[in-house]
Amino acid sequence: MDKEIKKKLASNWFKLLQNIFCDNIEKIENNKIKFKPKTWNRSKIKDEGGGEFRILKNGKIFEKVGVNFSEVYGKFSKEMSKKVPGASKDRSFWASGISVVMHMKNPHVPAIHFNTRFIYTTHGWFGGGMDVTPCINDPKEKKLLHYELKKMCDRHNKKYYKKYKKWCDEYFYLPHRKETRGIGGIFFDYKKDNWEKDFKFVSDLGVTFQTLFNSIIKTKYKKKWTTKEKELQYIKRSRYAEFNLLYDRGTKFGLQTGGNVEGILMSLPPIAKWN
Which of 44, 46, 184, 217 suits 168 as a labelling partner, its CA being 20 to 30 A distant? Predict the structure, then answer.
């Protein structure tokens, strides 16, 4: 398959997902609050792509949720090209993806993150995953999350779940705190085994993510919570912020390739506290 067709299919899917997720989230809020979209361009001088980030704040369920789409292209800096596979000989690149971060009002409902992307240098690959960060541990929730992710992975390859779960546990780890960010999920990168099969896997993850976040929210959003539990949520959010600012690949990639700063930092919680 021609690489331009691959790019178009991946980008169109990510954009479609953005619309589907936003419609779903607004319905959860009974359409009483809407996303505020904002488009951006990578360059003011020439065509290097751009994207659209959408943020919804202060809902009854969502304290803040961002759903970002981007499609950018151009040339890496010399320093950046050394860090990206396939870019050392030719600094040209193309990248598209979708990123979702949900920070909930009710501390019983965990923060939820999802991201999938397709990057092309001298060759192309997929990356992404999803993970859940509760401030109040719930063994049933963890069991459901990993059951559904394993079931989804097994539809494509029986080896995926174990491999990508381990990668997630290692990736979402704060070495300076000596603790994981949450209860895990799956994470993968440099996925380039077979484009058609990889694209089906990435697409399936998007569908599974929507099913999971609907299930998690529906189960918990009506639970009563205390001031103490809300304070605990603020503390847990500080760990989320630390990881995204210090270690997150997507944050670093976006900032180092001229991405939209406001959109990149939408993952940060509206309020966080340190003790």
Answer: 217
Please give the Cα distance from 116 to 131 (Å, whole number). Answer: 12
Catalytic annotation present for 108 = no
Domain locations along the chain: 3-267
The yes-or-no verdict on residue 106 having pLDDT over 80 is yes
Give per-residue pLDDT as tens, 124-173. Answer: 999 999 999 999 999 999 999 999 999 999 999 999 999 999 999 999 99
Beta strands in 160-223 (DSSP E): 173-174, 179-180, 185-191
Is 3.40.1500.10 the CATH classification of the domain at 3-267?
A: yes
Strands (E) across the chain are located at 36-41, 49-57, 62-75, 92-104, 111-120, 124-133, 173-174, 179-180, 185-191
Q: Considering just the CA atoms, what is the radius of gyration of the chain in Å?
A: 18
Distance separating alpha carbons of residues 127 and 142, to the nearest angstrom: 23
As a whole number of angstroms, the distance between CA 275 and CA 268 comes to 18
Residue-wise pLDDT tens digits, 220-257:
999 999 999 999 999 999 999 999 999 998 888 888 87
CB 136 within 8 A of CB 118: no
Local structure of residue 110 (DSSP, 8 states): P
pLDDT(258) > 80: no
- Here the tokens at position 9 are 């299919």
Question: Of 175, 191, 47, 177, nearest to 125 (Cα)?
Answer: 191
In which band, very low, low, confident or very high, does the pLDDT at 262 lie, cut at 50, 70 and 90? confident
**Using CA atoms, how far apart are residues 133 and 207, in angstroms rounded to an integer?**
20
